[in-house]
User: What shape does this take?
Amino acid sequence: MGKLKNGIIGFAIGDTLGVPVEFKSREELTRNPITDMKAGGTYNMPIGTWSDDTSMTLATMHSIIETGTIDTNNMADKFLKWFRNAEYTANNETFDIGRTTLQALAKYELKLNNASNCGGSSEYDNGNGSLMRVLPIAFYIYYKKIKDTNVIYNLVKETSSITHSHEISILGCYIYVIYTLLLLEGKSKTEAYKYIQKADYNNFSDYSISKYKRVLQDNIAKLAEDNISSNGYIVRTLEAVMWLFLNSNDYNNTILKAVNLGEDTDTISAITGGLLGIYYGADSIKESWKQKIKKYDYIIRLCDDFDRTIIAEEE
Assistant: This one.
């Protein structure tokens, strides 16, 4: 499979595995761990259901396919179609929308501002709601061969700011995008990690950079599991994702480990799954999971359309 499919399928399956146990504690999941895809759970959804993470990622992809570029108003229009009309959903039903995302989309719907000015800007608005949908931006940058870090920064900033405009959120997305680009270029997970630790973060304040100290200055991979949180705060989410990925040997075991960390299980598993899919390939993912996931053919078709749209423009 192509790189985009590897990443997006890896992402969607991680999301799907996490949906039934979202908000369950690590202690609960230690006693009764997830070992396979299941139905029911937190939202009582059928087996193979993905959440807002995949829906907003697919909406982002569709916007890029439609416009051939990063158009934040068009993206926000797609997010509203997801929220209001249940487009891009697994079962034609919208569930599990974050507070900051909901407020930002309401602001945009009321035409109070351009989409890239609607995101929550207080320090309390630093959930992982923009990090969870930023993977297609990394692919867009990769396909377009964009190397200028200021251009990359602005694309990430504008996209994140549709829902999350605080600098801490933008920096989390930026680190993830830069890391993903290095993996797409063929660097090993360790090489890529060393690179992001040395990268230029001049666009960001020392205060925001200090929040990511455990990723950017320490070695997050060396921490014990007890020191890794798996909540929805973007800093903790990125730490968990990097910890899981840097300690991984394959997709299937690592994605179950991601789910069984507990709390924000769908988002942490989705974001981790994106990296795992790119690195280990979708062909390495359990076949039964690919068979059980809802609208698998639709996801593949969207990936094909994205590849055709963006790669064709570059040829």
User: Anything to note?
Assistant: Residues 88 and 264 are 21 Å apart (CA to CA). The chain has 16 helices and no strands. The radius of gyration is 18 Å.
